[in-house]
Amino acid sequence: MKIAIIGATGEVGRMMIRNLVEFGVQIDELDLYASKRSAGTSLYYMDEALKVMELTAAAWDKAYDYVLFSAGSGVAKVQAPEALKACKLAIDNSSAFRKDEGIPLVVPEINGELLKGYRGIVANPNCSTIQMVLPLAVLDKLFGLRKVVVSTYQSVSGSGHKGLATLQAQREGCEDLGDYPAVIDLNLIPQIGAWLDDGYCAEEEKMHSETCKILNNDKIQVCATTVRVPVMYGHSISVYAEFEDKVDLKLAEQKLSQAEAINYSANTFTTPLDLGSSNESHVSRLRHGGDEYSLAFWNVAHNIRLGAATNAVKIMLKHAGYEA
Ligand SMILES: NC(=O)c1ccc[n+]([C@@H]2O[C@H](COP(=O)([O-])OP(=O)(O)OC[C@H]3O[C@@H](n4cnc5c(N)ncnc54)[C@H](OP(=O)(O)O)[C@@H]3O)[C@@H](O)[C@H]2O)c1
Q1: Alpha carbon nearest to ligand 1 atom 31, residue
Q2: Are the C-beta atoms of 226 and 207 separated by less than 8 Å?
Q3: Residues 91 and 68 in one domain
Q4: Cβ(32)–Cβ(52) under 8 Å?
Q5: Which of 87, 208, 212, 235 is catalytic?
Q6: Residues 12-34: pLDDT tens digits?
């Protein structure tokens, strides 16, 4: 396969390169692009040092099978439509195209069938949405999902390299807030993204609209409170969900234990530090909510892997007919 990664030097881009190796993808050509800032630097694919190139229009004079974007919305809006001159599928990690009607928003294990015969731009969902919607899709099939109330605990790597650098600098005494609206070290911040008119912030709205789009049901109510916490990698979510039908707890446990990309633990819990290089959505502390029509659980996943790079690489592999 001929692949280009746009934003290769970032947190997500670097993980995409690792995923290609981990999944044993047969690569004929791998081109790495970033901004002018890191052009000329090298990144390793296995034991081969590849030079990072500045992304310019010349990139689309070449032919790729797949172009993976992880360079933010601004770059994606301009360059992803252009990339279609050079490839059949451009997979974008930003929020630029997620709400567009004709553009599939894909978690391969849930709605991967949308990729069949598709050419164009595919949107990769928001990190918190991917990890949460995997178990919710299983439970929705069983009992009919009606409403979800969640609080998230999102790591600083969710803000890219700059988020990690800001926490590290504050640990060492620096007072610079970086891009955050408050101090993050030994603190937490209940705002991720810009404020919206209805009192929610952008990350919360994404969890609502994206969950409905992926589960193909506009009636699902989602009330999210998204919180940035001083954790380096791994997002955690406390989920409360209500259903149309009575919940059979044993059946829910059984189906979650068998589901693809879900790691279900009955008698313990997972923390962000436990994740290592896991590509799964970890579900634990499953219990009834206030009544027999509801469930509560604890959900943890690696935001750079499952929440971004791995989902994007799996979209590519599913489209290409590989199994990751
Ligand atoms: N981090 C997460 O948990 C996460 C989860 C889901 C989705 N995402 C999305 O994935 C994307 C990347 O996130 P990240 O965390 O990897 O960010 P990051 O660590 O800040 O990396 C950003 C990347 O974009 C590149 N870039 C910036 N401006 C560019 C330009 N004009 N042309 C070409 N490349 C450019 C940077 O290159 P330089 O090295 O040259 O600056 C770098 O490679 C964002 O859209 C983000 O919203 C991130």
Answers
A1: 35
A2: yes
A3: yes
A4: yes
A5: 235
A6: 999 999 999 999 999 999 999 99
319 is a catalytic site residue: no
Here the tokens at position 98 are 């997620």
Same domain, 25 and 84: yes
Catalytic residue, from 87, 127, 201, 282: name it: 127
Q: Would residue 127 show up in a list of annotated catalytic residues for this protein? A: yes
Same domain, 278 and 249: yes
Separation in Å, CA 23 to CA 8, 197, 314, 317: 18, 43, 9, 9
Q: H helices of 52-100, where?
A: 73-83
- Closest ligand 1 atom to the C-alpha of 73? 45
Residue 58, Cβ neighbours under 10 Å: how many?
Answer: 9
Same domain for 312 and 298, yes or no, is no
Radius of gyration of the chain (CA): 19
- Ligand 1 is surrounded, with C-beta below 6 A, by 6-13, 33-35, 37-38, 55, 70-72, 75, 93-94, 127, 157-158, 160-162, 303-304, 307-308
Task: Return the CATH number at 159.
Answer: 3.30.360.10
pLDDT in tens, 130-157: 999 999 999 999 999 999 999 999 999 9
The alpha carbon of 166 and the centre of ligand 1 are apart by a number of angstroms equal to 16
Q: What is the pLDDT of residues 244-271, one digit of tens each?
A: 999 999 999 999 999 999 999 998 999 9
- Which two three-digit tokens encode residue 128? 């918190």
pTM score: 0.97
Query: Running along the chain, 324 residues long, what does each successive block of 10 average in pLDDT?
Result: 98 98 97 98 97 97 98 98 97 98 97 98 98 98 98 98 98 98 98 98 98 98 98 98 98 98 96 98 97 98 98 98 75
The domain tally of the chain equals: 2
Nearest CA to ligand 1 atom 36: 7
Same domain, yes or no: 71 and 135: no
> Could you list the residue range(s) of the whole structural domain that residue 169 is in?
128-303
